[in-house]
Amino acid sequence: MEIGLVHYRVGETDGVSLEMVKWKQVLRNMHLKTYLIAGDMGTSPGFKIPYIAYTDKRSNVLKQKAFVNLNSWDEAYFKKEINKYVEDIYNQLYEMMDLDVMIVNNIFSLAHNPAAAVAVYRFCKDNGIKMIGHHHDFYWERDFYKNPTNDYIKEILEEYFPPRDIPNVVINSLAQEELKNKKGLDSVVIPNVFDFNQKQWEIDDYNIKIYDKLNISQNDLIFLQATRIVRRKAIELAIDTVAEVKKDLKKYIEKTTFNGKKITQDTNVFLVLPGLSEESDYVEVLKEYASQKDVELKLAFSISDDIRHEEEEIFSLWDFYAIADFITYPSILEGFGNQFLEAIFSKKPVLMFEYPVYKKDIAPLGFEVVSLGSKAEYERGRYRVNQNEIIKAKEEIFKILFDTQRASKIVQKNFELGKKYFSYETLGKKLKNLLVEKAHLGV
Fold it and tell me: Which of 105, 152, 259, 331 has the most crowded CB, counting CB atoms within 10 A?
């Protein structure tokens, strides 16, 4: 059996790219030939369909015409142009390998490229390829897609987002409810997963160089914000909490942290951000806010990648987890939460905002985190929570930092829960059920 996993892009550090690589690995572990297919392949091997890349100019023009303003076009011209684009994508699909199953990631749910959805669906139908829709985000969740400019784009959204005759997979139960309410469609929840059997990330002779690269002492405290730098990650809440920790750290001089760092008069606290900056204006907001709060940010994207490049002294994201003391994850909104799984695999304590999916699907499983609550307000370009939540979080952080037994118990419990509910083995069982019961395939 030949299976293709298709998306606009792969080989990046976004959630969809990461999950596609995990699904590919698990499907291959099941002895199924599996390929990645995308408009932009990044660092991944696979088959490239340039017309569906996020950066394709025609795609972006048509997206503006579909959801912002037709301007000089009328609906007939829009229809002609989008149908021509559908045909071009359709023809490009003929150049890829023969497939039995196409697992379609976000193309049937996030309306970035409506023509791609039509082309992929028609191509699979015409060539007897079974489809499974894997939906990480839905168009109706984004303000940009809420006002289609013409009836033809409304028809496409109704018919192909998602199609009504394919099995659907979502990544959380809130999305499952939304899809049922909006479109009357049933779906299977398959959450994000992580490889809990891989070698543990540890400080070694290479990643210890990060200290010197960032001008950090080995007794300084490192809070790691491992996400991309975008507003919904609410990194200002991490700054608020680190500021409180820094103010009170002098009370703990001569004490030793759970991982062996001795606090001295010279110990400093840093918030390290190795993730890609996708909103430059937000970076400036964070820099200014951190300066106001006397928190030192270390923007480390220039020395970070998905894998090590030792000759260039570039470190993997996992290297940053290895040297961190605490992980910050104050996101306001997540489809699931890859960084949460990474944090619990790294066996580091986690500070987080309880975003809706965490609260509904993850927290009830029993994870122990330092919580910033689940209520936030947005004003003047920043998120904020009640100051009492920040103070409580600071106090809990200190209790964990300076209690080896407590820290060890929490991180081990979280690791075991993660392995139980979000491992590759769990994904394997769910994929087998999906292929057999929903797609009616012999696996």
Answer: 105
**Token pair of 348, please?**
């580091």
Q: What is the dihedral of CA 433, 437, 440, 443, to 10 degrees?
A: 30
- What's the pLDDT at 439? 64
Cβ–Cβ contacts within 10 Å for residue 236, how many?
21
Instruction: Read off φ and ψ for residue 69, nearest 5 degrees.
Output: -165, 135
Q: Quick one: which H or E segment has residue 224?
A: strand 221-224
Structural domains in the chain, CATH included, are: 2-193+423-438 (3.40.50), 209-421 (3.40.50.2000)
Q: In 110-155, which ranges are E strands?
A: 130-135
Q: CA-CA distance, 261 to 222, in Å (whole number)?
A: 11
327 token code pair: 């992980």
294 sits in the region (left: phi over 0; alpha: psi -120 to 50; else beta) called left
* Confidence tier at 442 by pLDDT (50, 70, 90): low
Helix, strand or coil for residue 168?
strand
Whether this prediction's pTM lies above 0.85 is answered by yes
Q: Tell me what the pLDDT averaged over the chain comes to.
A: 95
pLDDT, residue 79, reads 97
Q: How many CB atoms lie within 10 A of CB 276?
A: 15
Q: How far, in Å, CA of 435 to CA of 443, rounded?
A: 7
| Res 108 pLDDT > 70 | yes
Rounded Cα distance, 416 and 300, in Å:
30
Euclidean distance between CA atoms 227 and 340, whole angstroms: 10
> 236 near 381, Cβ under 8 Å?
no
Residue 87: both structure tokens together? 């045909």
Contact 204, 310 (CB under 8 A): no
